[in-house]
Amino acid sequence: MFASVFVIALGLCYCSRASSQSSLGLPRLFGPSEALVKTAIVMNCELLTFPEDEPILLQLFREGNHSRLFAEYTSLERRVADFPIYVQPYHEGNLECVARAQNNSLIEPTVSNIHYLKVIEPVKGAEIEVRSGSVDLFEGNMLELRCKLKAGNHVSYKWLLNGQLVSQSLLHDDRLLINRTTSQDSGSYRCVASNSFNQTDFFTSNSTEVVITVREPVKGAEIEVRSGSVDLFEGNMLELRCKLKAGNHVSYKWLLNGQLVSQSLLHDDRLLINRTTSQDSGSYRCVASNSFNQTDFFTSNSTEVVITVRDLVSTPNISFTVLKEDFQNYSAVVTCRSTRGTPPVTFSLYNSTEVIASVTVEEQFATFKVPLILGQDLGFLQCQARNGDNATYSEKIPLEVVPVGGPVKMPYTYDSGENYDVIGVTFYCKAEKGTHPRYQWFLNGTLLDDRGSFYYVDHQPPEMAMLMLSVGDSSAGTYHCEVSDSFDNTTAISSRRLYLDKHTLNRLPVWVVAVVFGSFTFLILLVSVCCGLGVVFRRRHYGEKSLLDFEMERMTPVYYGKLDLSHYNEDTDVVNAARWGEVDQASLDSVDEWPQIEEEKKTLEDEPAEEP
């Protein structure tokens, strides 16, 4: 009995001792829930219940993986263990603290609560990877882009196309996926990666842009006239646009009447001419084209559009001729003429400010008939020409017709060649009055045409007419001109008649011979008189001393004695007589020529200068 009681007491004692040895409480793990990579943090493990005098080992592990020890701490007294950690990406996850008796394996370890630590690594080095292949696609192809990072976690992504956010439906984590592309998917793509720490520190990385080209074949080209009408006047602007039903990345060509238009006039899909001319008229056509991978080519031709650029009417010229209706009635036939201007053109005739008549014609001129009274001033005529909104005016001309009258003069000039021979003559025919004269030239009574073998007629009405001759044997004869009214040739006024041949023209006139020889004789007499007066003056002043004596005396030095030079003197009378003889002989020679000059003068005067 006693033995039984002892065994029971011993068992109770053992149980009591075993129970006291396993009394480890549950540790509690706490610390920051987020940490930046490569920064230092402290995790705390608190153990409230543990056996006395038993060293306790506290260790920090990832949940479920006790093979990798993050930190440990051995303590006999402290209830809270501090675990310093230099954060690395692998520290992220569920952490737990394990408490165990260091020297008593009979005491079971206890495990703390789970604590999640989020490790933040700032993003950097974002770049786009084209996972679908080429950046040049054909519509319908798939496009897949990935935003790669050199570093970063817990990242959110955004995608931009030409600066605009891409739909979230196309995003898959770090990828952008478009299963069937269209032309609207072309453009510049950029990805933006970002993350944050504690919602206070934000990190962002932008990739460089990647240009994706989705080509759509061109079709349905047509021309839009953006400047308005297809019928316009020169100086206006012409703007044409090549519209497409489909197509992108297109190049354009423009043809005018089948010829390429200058590149300087092209602006993308438009053709622009700021100031048109009539040369810009014609049939325009645009040709749109694009290609894929330089292997597949697509082209669309528009229908032709006809553009008409009309020339503005130029300033008209005004003139009129006189029409004789009957014996007493006359009319002015007025012509208004423009050198350029696209018909129809409206011409109007004004007398001062009053409109006489207007007419619209498909030509660049018009004629009007106005009643006329000869010799009266009937005001001023002026033409107006108009096409479109443009109007131009001619100069004003007087409506006055003066009949031909007064004497008709026929002066002439001549041209000289080598040896001063006359080689050409120009006659001028002028009437004293007359606004509409008609000139006619005659040689020996025969009417001359406008041009012949040796002559040419130049009419310059109303001032005059000229007859230009080449002097020769065929041009010899009697010339005259007649002037009559261009509208009435019943009467004509004639000039004087003038005979002309080359011998007459090249003979010196008598008066010219007389003047030349008279001037020569007068010059000889003048020299003789001067010489005589000089001799008389010397005789009176120096007496009988000769000029030689005077020169010798003047040259005698003052310090020489007087020399007898009488045997060197020349007889003064002999010298003077010789000199006067020379002068008299010259005078006699000149006088002896006068009978010959007079005879030649008489001969020249007897030759005919014109027909009587």
Describe what this molecule looks like in 3D.
With 612 residues, the protein is of the alpha+beta class. It has 6 domains: 23-120, Immunoglobulin-like (Sandwich); 127-215, Immunoglobulin-like (Sandwich), CATH 2.60.40; 222-310, Immunoglobulin-like, CATH 2.60.40.10; 317-398, Immunoglobulins (Immunoglobulin-like); 405-505, Sandwich (Immunoglobulin-like); 510-605. 16% of the residues lie in helices and 44% in strands. Strand 45 and strand 46 form a beta hairpin. It is elongated, with a radius of gyration of 65 Å. The chain starts with a helix and ends in a 6-residue tail after the last helix.
Distance between the termini: 205 Å
Helix fraction, binned, reads: 10-25%
Shape, per Cα inertia axes: elongated
- Structural class label: alpha+beta
CATH superfamily of the largest domain: Immunoglobulins
β-strand amount: 35-45%
Question: Which key phrases capture this entry?
Answer:
612 residues, alpha+beta, Immunoglobulin-like, six-stranded mixed β-sheet, 6 helices, disordered N terminus, disordered C terminus
Report a brief summary of the structure:
The protein is of the alpha+beta class. The chain contains six helices and 47 strands. The protein has six domains: about 100 residues, Immunoglobulin-like (Sandwich); about 90 residues, Immunoglobulin-like (Sandwich), CATH 2.60.40; about 90 residues, Immunoglobulins (Immunoglobulin-like); about 80 residues, Immunoglobulin-like (Sandwich), CATH 2.60.40.10; about 100 residues, Immunoglobulin-like (Sandwich); about 100 residues.
